[in-house]
Amino acid sequence: MPERVALQAPIYEIKAELFKALSHPVRIRTLELLSGDDRTVSALLADIGIEASHLSQHLAVLRRAGVVTKARRGNTVTYSLADPSVAHLLTAARAFLLHRLGEASGALADLAEADEATAVRPAEEARR
C-alpha cells in the first residue's frame, strides 16, 4: 500500500493489510526468529528450511508491509524487525491462542466427562 494512500485509509483497513502480510506460517516463523535477534538470509534459510526463492518472496512481503528491514554488507544481507512492537504483537497473539486453547481443552474435558457419564448410565440400566 503506497504511503500516501495508507495515510488516507481508515486504521482498520491499514490493520487488515498488516494482517494480510502476516498471514503465512513462513512469515510468522521468520518474525519469531527475528524477534530473538537479527539474522542473515543464510541463517533464516537454515532455520526455516525452505528454498531461497520462496524465502525471498516472503521477506519481500514483510518489507513492503514495513515489518522488517534489511541491511547489506558485501554479499551478506541481514534482516531485522522494523520495530520492537512486532515482537510484542507476536507475544500477544501467542497469549491469545494459548488462552483459547486452554478454553477449548476445558470444553473438551467437560465433553469427555459428559460422555463418560452417559456411557455409564445405559450400562447400568441394562443390568437392572
Overall description:
The protein has 128 residues and is mainly α. Helices cover 73% and strands 11% of the residues. It contains 6 helices and 3 strands. The protein has helices at 3-8, 11-21, 25-36, 41-48, 52-64, 85-127, and strands at 39-40, 68-73, 76-81. It has a 3-stranded antiparallel sheet.
Task: List the main descriptive attributes of the protein structure presented here.
single chain, 3 strands, elongated, 128 residues, 6 helices, mainly alpha, 73% helix, 11% strand
* Category by helix and strand content: mainly alpha
Strand order of the largest sheet: 1-3-2
Largest sheet: 3 strands, antiparallel
Number of helices: 6
- Rounded to the nearest angstrom, the radius of gyration is 23 Å
Order of helical and strand elements: HHHEHHEEH
**Basic shape:** elongated
Q: Count every beta strand, where a strand is a DSSP E run of 2 or more residues.
A: 3
**Share in helix:** over 70%
User: What are the segments in which pLDDT stays under 50 over at least 5 consecutive residues?
Assistant: none
Strand content: 5-15%
Tell me the distance between the termini.
72 Å
* Mean residue pLDDT: 88
